[in-house]
Amino acid sequence: MKRAVVLLSGGLDSTTALFWAREKGYRLEGLSVLYGQRHARELDAARSVAIAAGCSLNEVSLSLPWLAASALVDKKKRLPRLPLGRIGKDGIPSTYVPGRNTIFLALAASLADAVGAEAIVIGANALDYSGYPDCRPEFLEAFEETARQGTKRGVEGAPLKILAPLLRMTKRRIVELGLRLGAPLERTWSCYKGGRVPCGCCDSCKLRAKGFSEAGVADPALAAA
Ligand SMILES: [Zn+2]
Q1: 211: CA distance to ligand 1 center in Å?
Q2: What is the distance in A from the centroid of ligand 1 to the CA of 197?
Q3: Residue 135: in which H helix or E strand, if any?
Q4: Ligand 1 center to residue 163 CA distance, Å?
Q5: Which CATH number belongs to the domain containing residue 67 in this structure?
Q6: Number of domains making up the chain
Q7: Which of 110, 141, 155, 177 is the 20 to 30 Å CA partner of 211?
Q8: Mapping DSSP to helix (H, G, I), strand (E, B) and coil, where does residue 29 land?
Q9: Which residues are registered as beta bridge partners of 56?
Q10: Ligand 1 center to residue 3 CA distance, Å?
Q11: 215 Cα to the center of ligand 1, angstroms
Q12: Is residue 5 within 8 Å of 151, Cβ to Cβ?
């Protein structure tokens, strides 16, 4: 059976990507990373989603104090509050976590090479997104080449594929795909803040709300909160 490592943050995009990979027939190997983010709420969501998908979840906890350069890690930094139309168009925001997807993909490539997975699935999106450089197609293509050169699989002629099925989708299409796949969107957490209910004000909440609104459905996570 073909096997894939899926980076799972517990948000809307990675959960939809996980269920996309499941539908494609991959045996799933989830990977979640704690890197000092403001809250552990999303890891709880990732665990809950992994249970719903019936997949194992590898949890990695990193201690990288310099990531406090990001407002997603350092609670003293203010989260940006841009109008929806400016999100992703105002330069790289303070919520950018330095090298996050480079770190995540390196961990995923290591896990994939260890367990014999042929693909890494990542829910990166370069359309309705915050403008992070490590979500762009150029970066993912370059990392695929890095993995080809730097893994056992790669030099043995079966290079890892980096699959980013949501890369060019709008949030509306992501919501519609997640619903069609039966992904447990009610279990997902996208808000940059912790707490019991999403704040509704951060970039991530706004992009998510846009997706559900344009798809014409209520966000089941809000009903479940
Ligand atoms: Zn929020």
Answers
A1: 14
A2: 9
A3: none
A4: 27
A5: 3.40.50.620
A6: 1
A7: 141
A8: strand
A9: 29
A10: 33
A11: 19
A12: no
Tell me, in angstroms, the distance from the centre of ligand 1 to residue 202's CA.
4
**Residue whose structure tokens are 């519609």:** 176
Return the number of other C-beta atoms located less than 10 Å from residue 82's C-beta: 15
Report the length, in residues, of the chain: 225
Q: Provide the token pair at 126.
A: 């370069």
Do 62 and 35 meet the contact criterion of CB atoms below 8 Å apart?
Answer: yes
Give the Å distance between the CA of 79 and the centre of ligand 1.
9
Q: How far is the CA of 64 from the centre of ligand 1 (A)?
A: 24
Provide CB contacts within 8 A for 81, sequence distance 6+: 201, 202
**Ligand 1 midpoint to CA 208 (Å):** 9
The Å distance, Cα 195 to ligand 1 centre, comes to 10
Q: Mean pLDDT of residues grouped by 10 in the chain (225 residues)?
A: 96 98 98 90 94 97 94 85 76 88 98 97 88 90 97 96 97 97 96 87 91 96 80
Alpha carbon dihedral 172, 175, 176, 178, in 10-degree steps, equals: 160
Q: DSSP labels for 101-122?
A: HHHHHHHHHHHHHHHT--EEE-
CA distances from 207 to 32, 98, 174, 200, 211 (A): 22, 21, 11, 10, 6
70 neighbors 98 (Cβ within 8 angstroms): yes
Q: How far is the CA of 189 from the CAs of 6, 44, 77, 102, in angstroms? A: 17, 9, 21, 22
Range(s) of the domain holding residue 202? 3-224
pLDDT of 92: 85
Q: What is the pLDDT at residue 225?
A: 67
